[in-house]
Amino acid sequence: AQSVTQPDIHITVSEGASLELRCNYSYGATPYLFWYVQSPGQGLQLLLKYFSGDTLVQGIKGFEAEFKRSQSSFNLRKPSVHWSDAAEYFCAVGAFEKTSYDKVIFGPGTSLSVIP
Amino acid sequence: GAGVSQTPSNKVTEKGKYVELRCDPISGHTALYWYRQSLGQGPEFLIYFQGTGAADDSGLPNDRFFAVRPEGSVSTLKIQRTERGDSAVYLCASSPDGSSYEQYFGPGTRLTVT
Hints:
The complex is a heterodimer. Chain A is mainly beta. Helices cover 0% and strands 51% of the residues of chain A. Chain A has strands at residues 3-5, 10-14, 19-21, 24-26, 32-38, 44-50, 56-58, 64-68, 73-78, 87-94, 104-106, 110-115. In chain A, strands 2, 5, 6, 10, 11 and 12 form a six-stranded mixed β-sheet that branches. By secondary structure, chain B is mostly beta strands. The termini of chain B are far apart. The model of chain B has no long low-confidence stretch (mean pLDDT 93). Classes of the chains: A mainly beta, B mainly beta. Chains A and B meet through strand 6, strand 10 and strand 11 of A and strand 5 and strand 10 of B.
């Protein structure tokens, strides 16, 4: 069965600093990978997704993520963080097996705080 | 256009009571998903509907939990004999055609069982 780990429970960065949120997955086949963001009182919003092709994926709000098969990782990055980026970030993996529909497994999340 | 809506936004109930949580998906979306998010955790899959039928209910924790989608649009998650451990945020998502590629999430219903 697939699983997702996010090693950092909470991260604090200064506004304008760069950001990297870590995500590791476990899945027997080629995974489908996602990053979602959840702001307080808001639903989850898809930041970006990886299905195939270029391993560097661009998303909304200036975020990008890189798929590294050898490391089973899909880390999220942003070169310059804004105060509005403070939120909970979830990495997720899709088990798109031929005999079943699509089921997404979420990691435990990383809480991001931004210092002015 | 309108996104996924969930009602109520908050629900407080006593242990042992019955509750219903409602989800209105984006119009035209055939797939609907329910998740449960406990404090400090990521969303946990509960059930998936394709149209009116539950295509996968393997995430429902026990037979106290049940969900319906009688007309292929609005869905109701029903919890009988609630327990304190049921306290969580219940999230609903919909997607156009049954693919998880583009799931649109609602704001959730925060359920508190006292």
